[in-house]
Write a structure and sequence with these properties.
about 240 residues; alpha/beta; 4-stranded antiparallel sheet; globular; binds adenosine-5'-triphosphate; binds magnesium ion
Length: about 240
Amino acid sequence: MKKTIPGTRNPTALLRIQNLKKSFQMGTVTTDVLRGVDLEIFEGDFLAIVGASGSGKSTLLNMIGLLDLQTSGKIFLKGHDVAHMSDDQRADLRSKVFGFVFQQYNLIPWLSAFENVTLPLIFARKKIDEAQISEQSKSIGLGERMHHRPFELSGGEQQRVALMRALSNDPDIIIGDEPTGNLDSETGHRILDMLIDLNKMKKKTLIIVTHDASIAKRADKVIILKDGLIIKHQLKNGRVYIA
Ligand SMILES: Nc1ncnc2c1ncn2[C@@H]1O[C@H](COP(=O)(O)OP(=O)(O)OP(=O)(O)O)[C@@H](O)[C@H]1O
Ligand SMILES: [Mg+2]
Protein backbone atom coordinates (compact mmCIF):
# COMPACT_ATOMS: atom_id res chain seq x y z
CA MET A 1 0.00 0.00 0.00
CA LYS A 2 1.19 3.47 -0.81
CA LYS A 3 2.13 5.81 1.99
CA THR A 4 1.26 9.45 1.47
CA ILE A 5 3.18 12.38 2.80
CA PRO A 6 1.27 13.70 5.83
CA GLY A 7 -0.50 17.00 5.30
CA THR A 8 -0.34 16.96 1.53
CA ARG A 9 -3.96 16.18 0.71
CA ASN A 10 -4.57 19.84 0.23
CA PRO A 11 -7.01 20.86 -2.49
CA THR A 12 -5.18 24.14 -3.01
CA ALA A 13 -2.00 22.52 -4.35
CA LEU A 14 -0.64 24.53 -7.28
CA LEU A 15 -0.19 21.30 -9.22
CA ARG A 16 -1.82 18.04 -8.28
CA ILE A 17 -0.83 14.97 -10.26
CA GLN A 18 -2.80 11.78 -9.85
CA ASN A 19 -1.86 8.35 -11.17
CA LEU A 20 -0.19 9.91 -14.19
CA LYS A 21 0.74 7.51 -16.95
CA LYS A 22 2.43 8.10 -20.27
CA SER A 23 3.13 5.54 -22.95
CA PHE A 24 4.76 6.04 -26.31
CA GLN A 25 3.76 3.94 -29.28
CA MET A 26 6.53 3.17 -31.76
CA GLY A 27 5.13 0.94 -34.50
CA THR A 28 3.77 -2.09 -32.70
CA VAL A 29 5.84 -1.49 -29.56
CA THR A 30 4.39 0.43 -26.62
CA THR A 31 6.77 1.83 -24.01
CA ASP A 32 5.26 2.68 -20.65
CA VAL A 33 7.40 5.60 -19.56
CA LEU A 34 5.37 6.98 -16.64
CA ARG A 35 3.55 4.24 -14.78
CA GLY A 36 1.43 6.02 -12.18
CA VAL A 37 2.96 9.16 -10.69
CA ASP A 38 1.27 10.91 -7.75
CA LEU A 39 2.65 14.26 -6.73
CA GLU A 40 1.56 17.54 -5.21
CA ILE A 41 3.46 20.74 -5.75
CA PHE A 42 2.66 23.87 -3.76
CA GLU A 43 3.23 27.50 -4.55
CA GLY A 44 6.80 28.45 -3.66
CA ASP A 45 8.07 24.86 -3.58
CA PHE A 46 11.56 24.08 -4.79
CA LEU A 47 11.28 20.53 -6.04
CA ALA A 48 14.18 18.55 -7.48
CA ILE A 49 13.50 15.49 -9.62
CA VAL A 50 16.33 13.00 -9.83
CA GLY A 51 16.71 9.54 -11.30
CA ALA A 52 18.72 7.56 -13.81
CA SER A 53 18.78 8.40 -17.50
CA GLY A 54 15.59 7.11 -19.11
CA SER A 55 13.61 7.01 -15.85
CA GLY A 56 11.03 9.46 -17.23
CA LYS A 57 12.14 12.79 -15.75
CA SER A 58 11.85 14.87 -18.92
CA THR A 59 8.62 13.11 -19.82
CA LEU A 60 7.17 14.08 -16.43
CA LEU A 61 8.33 17.70 -16.84
CA ASN A 62 6.70 17.87 -20.27
CA MET A 63 3.39 16.79 -18.74
CA ILE A 64 3.71 19.21 -15.83
CA GLY A 65 4.49 22.08 -18.22
CA LEU A 66 1.51 21.25 -20.48
CA LEU A 67 3.82 20.49 -23.39
CA ASP A 68 2.46 17.00 -23.89
CA LEU A 69 -0.70 15.12 -22.94
CA GLN A 70 -0.72 12.18 -20.59
CA THR A 71 -2.02 8.77 -21.64
CA SER A 72 -4.10 8.57 -18.45
CA GLY A 73 -4.31 10.08 -14.99
CA LYS A 74 -4.95 13.67 -14.01
CA ILE A 75 -3.10 16.95 -13.70
CA PHE A 76 -4.80 19.79 -11.90
CA LEU A 77 -3.29 23.25 -12.20
CA LYS A 78 -4.74 25.49 -9.48
CA GLY A 79 -7.57 22.98 -9.22
CA HIS A 80 -8.38 22.93 -12.95
CA ASP A 81 -8.12 19.67 -14.84
CA VAL A 82 -5.77 20.62 -17.68
CA ALA A 83 -6.88 17.71 -19.88
CA HIS A 84 -10.27 19.41 -20.23
CA MET A 85 -8.74 22.54 -21.70
CA SER A 86 -8.56 23.31 -25.40
CA ASP A 87 -5.15 23.47 -27.12
CA ASP A 88 -5.46 27.26 -27.18
CA GLN A 89 -6.20 27.44 -23.46
CA ARG A 90 -3.24 25.19 -22.70
CA ALA A 91 -0.95 27.28 -24.91
CA ASP A 92 -2.16 30.48 -23.27
CA LEU A 93 -1.61 29.09 -19.78
CA ARG A 94 1.77 27.71 -20.78
CA SER A 95 2.99 31.07 -22.00
CA LYS A 96 1.69 32.93 -18.94
CA VAL A 97 2.37 30.54 -16.08
CA PHE A 98 5.50 28.59 -17.03
CA GLY A 99 9.10 29.44 -17.86
CA PHE A 100 11.07 26.57 -19.38
CA VAL A 101 14.77 25.83 -19.52
CA PHE A 102 15.26 22.64 -21.49
CA GLN A 103 18.03 20.08 -21.73
CA GLN A 104 18.45 21.22 -25.32
CA TYR A 105 18.38 24.99 -25.34
CA ASN A 106 15.73 25.28 -28.08
CA LEU A 107 16.85 28.74 -29.08
CA ILE A 108 15.67 30.04 -32.43
CA PRO A 109 18.79 29.97 -34.59
CA TRP A 110 18.08 32.97 -36.81
CA LEU A 111 17.32 35.33 -33.91
CA SER A 112 19.93 37.03 -31.75
CA ALA A 113 20.25 36.21 -28.05
CA PHE A 114 18.39 39.44 -27.25
CA GLU A 115 15.58 38.58 -29.66
CA ASN A 116 15.32 35.06 -28.24
CA VAL A 117 15.05 36.47 -24.72
CA THR A 118 12.34 38.99 -25.64
CA LEU A 119 10.24 36.64 -27.78
CA PRO A 120 7.93 35.56 -24.92
CA LEU A 121 7.27 39.25 -24.19
CA ILE A 122 6.35 39.89 -27.80
CA PHE A 123 3.98 36.91 -27.78
CA ALA A 124 2.43 38.12 -24.53
CA ARG A 125 2.30 41.72 -25.89
CA LYS A 126 4.32 42.95 -22.93
CA LYS A 127 6.70 45.87 -22.79
CA ILE A 128 10.39 45.15 -23.38
CA ASP A 129 12.55 46.79 -20.72
CA GLU A 130 15.92 46.99 -22.47
CA ALA A 131 17.73 48.41 -19.43
CA GLN A 132 16.56 45.54 -17.22
CA ILE A 133 17.51 42.94 -19.82
CA SER A 134 20.92 44.53 -20.22
CA GLU A 135 21.49 44.51 -16.45
CA GLN A 136 20.36 40.89 -16.15
CA SER A 137 22.55 39.80 -19.07
CA LYS A 138 25.58 41.40 -17.41
CA SER A 139 24.82 39.73 -14.10
CA ILE A 140 24.97 36.28 -15.69
CA GLY A 141 28.00 37.06 -17.81
CA LEU A 142 26.31 37.61 -21.16
CA GLY A 143 26.79 41.36 -21.37
CA GLU A 144 28.70 41.41 -24.64
CA ARG A 145 26.95 38.46 -26.22
CA MET A 146 23.31 39.51 -26.51
CA HIS A 147 23.49 40.52 -30.17
CA HIS A 148 25.02 37.26 -31.30
CA ARG A 149 23.05 34.41 -32.76
CA PRO A 150 23.01 31.04 -30.96
CA PHE A 151 25.57 29.38 -33.27
CA GLU A 152 28.05 32.08 -32.28
CA LEU A 153 27.65 31.26 -28.58
CA SER A 154 29.12 28.47 -26.48
CA GLY A 155 26.84 25.81 -25.02
CA GLY A 156 26.98 27.46 -21.61
CA GLU A 157 26.16 30.87 -23.08
CA GLN A 158 23.22 29.43 -24.99
CA GLN A 159 21.97 27.85 -21.77
CA ARG A 160 22.11 31.24 -20.03
CA VAL A 161 20.19 32.86 -22.89
CA ALA A 162 17.61 30.09 -22.54
CA LEU A 163 17.41 30.84 -18.82
CA MET A 164 16.89 34.55 -19.44
CA ARG A 165 14.18 33.73 -21.95
CA ALA A 166 12.47 31.48 -19.41
CA LEU A 167 12.39 34.30 -16.87
CA SER A 168 11.51 37.17 -19.20
CA ASN A 169 7.78 36.63 -18.88
CA ASP A 170 7.91 36.62 -15.07
CA PRO A 171 6.44 33.10 -14.82
CA ASP A 172 4.94 31.67 -11.60
CA ILE A 173 6.46 28.26 -12.23
CA ILE A 174 10.01 27.78 -13.49
CA ILE A 175 10.72 24.38 -14.99
CA GLY A 176 14.32 23.40 -15.63
CA ASP A 177 15.62 20.24 -17.25
CA GLU A 178 19.28 20.14 -16.17
CA PRO A 179 19.33 23.98 -16.30
CA THR A 180 22.95 24.19 -15.18
CA GLY A 181 24.11 20.95 -16.78
CA ASN A 182 26.25 22.58 -19.45
CA LEU A 183 27.81 25.27 -17.31
CA ASP A 184 31.11 25.37 -15.48
CA SER A 185 30.56 24.96 -11.76
CA GLU A 186 30.99 28.65 -10.88
CA THR A 187 28.45 29.86 -13.46
CA GLY A 188 26.22 26.94 -12.57
CA HIS A 189 26.19 27.99 -8.93
CA ARG A 190 25.56 31.62 -9.85
CA ILE A 191 22.55 30.63 -11.92
CA LEU A 192 21.28 28.30 -9.26
CA ASP A 193 21.57 31.13 -6.71
CA MET A 194 19.55 33.33 -9.04
CA LEU A 195 16.84 30.69 -9.35
CA ILE A 196 16.78 30.06 -5.60
CA ASP A 197 16.52 33.83 -5.00
CA LEU A 198 13.47 33.94 -7.24
CA ASN A 199 12.08 31.00 -5.32
CA LYS A 200 12.69 32.44 -1.86
CA MET A 201 12.12 36.16 -2.47
CA LYS A 202 9.41 36.08 -5.10
CA LYS A 203 7.81 32.75 -4.19
CA LYS A 204 8.34 31.37 -7.68
CA THR A 205 7.81 27.65 -7.80
CA LEU A 206 10.92 25.84 -9.00
CA ILE A 207 10.81 22.37 -10.50
CA ILE A 208 14.21 21.17 -11.56
CA VAL A 209 15.46 17.91 -13.01
CA THR A 210 19.07 17.40 -12.08
CA HIS A 211 21.83 14.84 -11.84
CA ASP A 212 23.75 17.20 -9.58
CA ALA A 213 23.58 16.18 -5.92
CA SER A 214 24.59 19.70 -4.82
CA ILE A 215 21.49 21.15 -6.52
CA ALA A 216 19.21 18.46 -5.13
CA LYS A 217 20.63 19.18 -1.67
CA ARG A 218 19.41 22.77 -1.86
CA ALA A 219 15.86 21.81 -2.86
CA ASP A 220 13.03 21.69 -0.30
CA LYS A 221 11.80 18.39 -1.69
CA VAL A 222 13.44 15.75 -3.80
CA ILE A 223 11.67 12.98 -5.62
CA ILE A 224 13.48 10.03 -7.10
CA LEU A 225 12.06 8.49 -10.25
CA LYS A 226 12.81 4.94 -11.24
CA ASP A 227 11.32 3.26 -14.28
CA GLY A 228 8.48 5.76 -14.43
CA LEU A 229 7.52 5.63 -10.76
CA ILE A 230 8.40 7.79 -7.78
CA ILE A 231 10.35 5.53 -5.47
CA LYS A 232 11.22 8.09 -2.83
CA HIS A 233 10.15 11.51 -1.54
CA GLN A 234 12.67 13.33 0.57
CA LEU A 235 12.12 16.60 2.41
CA LYS A 236 14.81 19.07 3.41
CA ASN A 237 14.34 18.24 7.08
CA GLY A 238 15.69 14.81 6.24
CA ARG A 239 12.37 13.01 6.37
CA VAL A 240 12.08 10.35 3.70
CA TYR A 241 8.90 8.76 2.43
CA ILE A 242 9.13 5.62 0.43
CA ALA A 243 6.36 5.47 -2.17
N1 LIG B 1 8.61 10.89 -27.89
C1 LIG B 1 9.06 9.70 -27.47
N2 LIG B 1 8.81 8.59 -28.19
C2 LIG B 1 9.24 7.38 -27.78
N3 LIG B 1 9.92 7.15 -26.63
C3 LIG B 1 10.20 8.23 -25.88
C4 LIG B 1 9.79 9.54 -26.26
N4 LIG B 1 10.22 10.40 -25.29
C5 LIG B 1 10.87 9.65 -24.40
N5 LIG B 1 10.85 8.35 -24.73
C6 LIG B 1 11.45 7.25 -23.96
O1 LIG B 1 10.99 7.33 -22.64
C7 LIG B 1 12.01 7.01 -21.70
C8 LIG B 1 12.17 8.16 -20.71
O2 LIG B 1 12.65 9.29 -21.40
P1 LIG B 1 12.94 10.65 -20.66
O3 LIG B 1 13.43 11.60 -21.70
O4 LIG B 1 11.74 11.07 -19.88
O5 LIG B 1 14.10 10.21 -19.66
P2 LIG B 1 14.96 11.09 -18.65
O6 LIG B 1 14.75 10.52 -17.29
O7 LIG B 1 14.68 12.52 -18.86
O8 LIG B 1 16.47 10.74 -19.10
P3 LIG B 1 17.79 11.68 -19.22
O9 LIG B 1 18.32 11.80 -17.82
O10 LIG B 1 18.70 10.87 -20.11
O11 LIG B 1 17.38 12.99 -19.82
C9 LIG B 1 13.25 6.73 -22.53
O12 LIG B 1 13.39 5.35 -22.65
C10 LIG B 1 12.96 7.37 -23.87
O13 LIG B 1 13.60 6.69 -24.91
MG1 LIG C 1 15.79 14.09 -19.70
